[in-house]
């Protein structure tokens, strides 16, 4: 996902609670792979990279609050041309609202952009060089976000309909 991607925010609105429920009750393992391919659409703010970095900081220092932070970050997504970014301060306010622990570590991580090189490398691998870091992926590259893989098979809402139905069909085909 890319935190500046409107379709990612829409996906979160529809399926965020479901994914969290599946993860919480052990029904599924949910992995997020953050990308920053939309930096060029953020008017020079590098928002996609900075937001992905902030999410990685939360995952590193307060993993139990990641789902809440991910949800808040996507629901607070800036809407161009009114706004192209959340400032670091605004993202750190969301860190607090998400109930994150180790806030000072997260603040330092955001300020230093600790994971920005990692985000850049992950974006390059996902979008142009491969391979995807997803076991048994049928996709060689990510062509857009959100890209959702279930046991390596790509979920396409226009083909498969509802995500829960697609997941159930994957379980029945095993």
Individual helix count: 8
Shape: globular
Beta-strand content bin: under 5%
- Which series of helices and strands comes N to C? HHHHHHEEHH
Q: How many E-type strands?
A: 2
Percent helix: 40-55%
Low-confidence segments: none
Biggest sheet layout: 2 strands, antiparallel
Gyration radius from CA atoms, angstroms: 16 Å
Account of the 3D structure:
This protein is mainly α. Helix content is 53%, strand content 3%. It has helices spanning 6-24, 47-61, 66-75, 88-97, 103-112, 116-129, 157-160, 163-172; strands at residues 148-150, 153-155.
List the helices and strands and how they pair.
Blueprint lengths: L5 H19 L22 H15 L4 H10 L12 H10 L5 H10 L3 H14 L18 E3 L2 E3 L1 H4 L2 H10 L2
Antiparallel strand pairs: 1-2
Q: What's this entry about, in short?
A:
The two termini are about 25 Å apart. The chain has about 170 residues and is mainly alpha-helical.
